[in-house]
Amino acid sequence: MPRMVGRAKRMPVPDELQSLALAPRHLSLLSYLLFDGPTTVNDLAARLEVAPTTVSLMVGELSRKGILERREDESDRRRRIVSITDSKRPSIAGWLARGATAWRQALGPLTPVQRQMVVGTLRAYEAAMAEAEGEGEDGPPA
Fold it and tell me: Is pTM, for the whole model, over 0.85?
């Protein structure tokens, strides 16, 4: 596990994104938008397991940097849909797709049951680490 984390941390940020000062907290948000497509702040908050206000602040920050854009939902004008801007999508895709490709190569040969076991094991590891740090299932203590 430490080797995997170390490898992920060493993935160089593309030159065209260097000046944007992207932090590790942005990677999961960008990954969800890249691989799952545009969505709402509330959906991102649920997936990231953080408060919607936290995601809203990140989206605002990344929008000001020209990485994300917010637009009205055509079916419900009260909702805003968040997506990666067309100008930044190729750089972000090239950067984050390497990890996705590696996971597909590693998990591809496995049966669905075996893949579920791997995912279950990683979740159990994460839960045990959170428990050891005094976190509950809902995240850090208040």
Answer: no
